[in-house]
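Protein record
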Amino acid sequence: MALFYRREEKTDTVTIRFVHTPIVFLVVFIGSIASMFMGNNAGNMLWLLIWIFVGVYIFDVMKPGKEIRQAKQEGSVRFSGSRFSLKNPLTVTIRNARKLDSSSQEQ
């Protein structure tokens, strides 16, 4: 279940769009500022919630991260957008070389 990214597969490309990454940065930033103005117990509780949220984020993006690292080694990846923008989110386009190679061998 992908919470923080959207994956689109076509015949020759895979597009991964990290649409909610700016929200993660914003939650961590606002949470850290807010914890400074809270009491000791409430601030600690807020930090616990932030760490759980960040842990869920990291666990969720591990699978596409592994796929992107592998595509970078193969040289079949293209990055566009910004990880800080909601209007133009970080988009990774992977040219699916394995599917293209297997389809050309079948013909």
User: Anything to note?
Assistant: Confidence is low (pLDDT under 50) at residues 100-107. The chain has one domain: 6-106. DSSP finds four helices and four strands in the chain.
